[in-house]
Amino acid sequence: MTDIQDLLQRSSFIELSARQRAQSLLDLRYRELVDPFDRITSPWLPKQNIVPQADDGVVVIKGTIQKQPVVVIAIEGAFQGGSLGEVGGAKIAGALELAIEDNRKGIPTAAVLLLETGGVRLQEANLGLAAIAEIHAAIVELRQYQPVIGIVAGSVGCFGGMSIAAGLCSYLILTQEGRLGLNGPQVIEQEAGVQEYDAKDRPFIWSITGGAQRFASGLVDAFVEDDVEQIHQQVQQFLSGGCPAQPRSSRYAWFLEKMAQVDTREQISPSAVQQLYQGEFA
Questions:
Q1: CA 281 to CA 278: how far, in whole Å?
Q2: For residue range 39-54, what is the model confidence (pLDDT) as tens digits?
Q3: Calpha distance 169→248 (Å, rounded)
Q4: What percentage of the chain's residues is helix, strand, coil (to nearest 5)?
Q5: CATH 1.10.490.10 fits 11-251, yes or no
Q6: Cβ atoms within 10 Å of 67's Cβ, excluding its own
Q7: Which DSSP symbol is given to 110?
Q8: How much is the pTM?
Q9: Where are the domains of the chain?
């Protein structure tokens, strides 16, 4: 099969909305929690003349994947850049806490997070930060029972406080188009200058924070095509494999040792990043 034929047979995951992405991963029977018909919107956006969205840009669906109970949480990158405020953050934290309760009751509920987000919503900064802290705590607790799988598929990427959430996941999946980093390119350029980080240099940006680079550096667990079926199969594989023996975030001493080796006087190259993270975890 040629590359063109292969491409034509794919169903793009990135082109789907957050709700469609979540639904594409689940078995046929599922239910959405706090859906748009509940009309729970951000009370803060209208005060700043911003039109709110009925689900606040977060979709939470409870169902199964290959009969494994899961909650799939998807952030809509097209709404306010996927930023999280009070309502959206509470929906994510609440859904994860309900999954924890399920596990305590003997229902082995895992979680899949579809992360297309710039992090906290600036219009709701303190409320968003508090919600993200609750999300972090819930991920750490839930991953003791069942896998928490993060997926970063689209060009919005995953940055800010939610990039820490991604780092806490049991497993991470990225595509070529996905990006993962603590600070977004525009933030780095604003604070450190264009000489340090040119936010308009897309090849450079993706060579540092893109899916291929993050996978080659060992910072994510799977690198897949922008294809619904491939992503679905990878999620199934991680679910069936259970929790990893040691979460990546618990290996912080190894990562700190690596970071101490970086010479910040020079701009690090993509190849140097990959070389930095080679070797076995301590």
A1: 9
A2: 999 999 999 999 999 9
A3: 8
A4: 45, 15, 40
A5: no
A6: 6
A7: E
A8: 0.93
A9: 11-251
